[in-house]
Amino acid sequence: MEFGTGCLKITPAHDFNDYKIGKKHDLEFINILIKMGN
User: Fold this and answer.
1) Both ends of the chain: CA-CA distance in Å?
2) Other beta carbons within 10 Å of 32
3) How far apart are CA 27 and CA 24, in angstroms?
4) What is the pTM assigned to this prediction?
5) Is it the case that residue 38 has pLDDT exceeding 70?
């Protein structure tokens, strides 16, 4: 058995780096936070 699956978690609406990946691959942006941050 090899280590890892090659799978990544991408959260485009909550992280700057993930945002860039999401835009590049036309992913859906779902914001689960309200203005107070929770």
Assistant:
1) 39
2) 8
3) 8
4) 0.58
5) no
